Amino acid sequence: MHRRNMAGLVDTLFYPIVSILCFLVLWHVGVANSRLSIVMPGPWTVITRFFQGFINPIGRHTMTVHILYSLMRVLPAYIVGSIVGIVLGILMGWYPAVNSIIRPLYELIRPIPPIAWIPISIVWFGIGEGSKWFLIFLAAFVPITLNAYAGATSVDTTLFKCSKMLGASDRQIFSTVVLPASIPNIFAGLQVGLSASWATVVAAEMIRSTEGVGWIIISSMDTNDVAQSLVGIVGIGIVGFILAILMRKLEDILCIWNKREV
Amino acid sequence: MEEKKKPQIWLSLMSVALFLSIWYLCTAVLKLVPPTTLPSPVKVLNTFITKLSSPNPDGATLIQHTLASLQVALTGYIVAILIGVPLGIMMAWNKYTDRFVRPIFDLIKPVPGVAWIPIMIVIFGVGIQSKAAVVFFSAVVPCILNAYTGVKQTKDVHLWVARTFGGTRRQMLFRIAIPTSLPYIMTGVRIALGSAWVSIVAAELLGSTRGLGFMIQQARGIYRTDIIIVGMLAIGICGAVLTAILGLIEKKVVKGKENNA
User: Fold this and answer.
1) What residues have CB less than 8 Å from B9, skipping those under 6 apart?
2) What radius of gyration do chain B's Cα atoms show?
3) pLDDT of residue B115
4) Nearest Cα to A118, choosing from A219, A233, A199?
5) What gap in Å lies between CA B147 and CA B85, rounded to an integer?
6) DSSP code, position A61
7) Structure ipTM
8) Using the beta-carbon criterion (under 8 Å), do A202 and B217 form an inter-chain contact?
9) Domain A46-254 -> CATH class
10) Taking CA atoms, what residue in B is nearest to A242?
11) Which of A4, A175, A253, B213 is deepest in the core (most CB within 10 A)?
12) d(CA B220, CA A30)
């Protein structure tokens, strides 16, 4: 038992550390000994700049404030998008009539990536928060609707027929069979929607903003400061990673009966 | 289910008709919103048709823009498949590759492709290379991830059978692991297509002289909302057509998908 724990520890800690160190050393050597050093900073510069960003402001705000700005853009729009998406998706899956009405309009919007909405959302809502909320709403709404719909239509027909045979009303079937059965799919959609929202806020901030993690990256382009760009990428990656983990934890807590195999 | 759907077609048609007529009423008849905010559907259709052959006002026709976007997106996408799928298979099949590549892959995975744009422009300039690199970064992640999951899900029993009959490791990989993981790989390739198409639009919004993303960004600058909508429709249609083509290929390549996926 003890030895297996040790082996597990080596697997989970030792190899990743060695691998990442190798990567950093390669990066360092590659940059230090070639013409790349003109445009590429070394790993050490990026790491120190990243941690300095939490103390000294980048632009007008510190890293923490930039991240909070971006999160404050994502969360309200994401929550509204999820609620609308879940309700609409389940209604479409449950009532064929609703599906026939909404489906063609939804199929019109679905293939257009949220990023392609950026120019028109700026025309409609200006360059403030409104256009970003609109974009994130779209980014969250589209995959969540699709997954909620898939969840509601993929209910095991045996369960469905059983409950009908045992005399459950339509409303009962809906709330006790269809809704719980579609929860795993809904969570898959929420997960996809969250990462899409995060990518979209970065894109939206890159097009037009004065703060936020996307701004960190895009303002570095104007000053030719590649280190700052990499600092922004690290920040975006870490926040995206944390969001994904939080979502998975939430799913573990809420759907304890249904462990998704990933 | 199919029987139930058929009589509902008129509902779908009505909903589209209703949508278009409300749009038409609000813009062309009642003039509730100025045409710079939302042009009427007739105007959009007109612009779509003229834009097919006219290079005004941004220097290229709709077809040229579309081809430019497609060229860059497909370049990055194909490189991403060629590198991502074998890498994913290798990571799943070979313990050492997994141990050393996985941590680095996990670092890169949560970064959206869009975030790479400025740094790629610094390294490769504003030409095709930087955009293809951005497309590559966003498309390679799902390719690796799904090839990895697919090979990992190979049934042990199948491998044991192969070993019992004296199959070499190479045979086990090419005859069992890869064929059974094909549905997963194809799903990854399909997701990658979506991300590739998204990231090319983003890359063109930020720095470009050609392409659909460039076109809608230029149109915003001069308040030609009709061109923006035409561009968005073109982006949507291209994405849908590419996905449909891939679906056809998938049907040909992947056998017995129903049992596996």
Assistant:
1) A100
2) 23
3) 87
4) A199
5) 6
6) B
7) 0.80
8) no
9) mainly alpha
10) B110
11) B213
12) 41
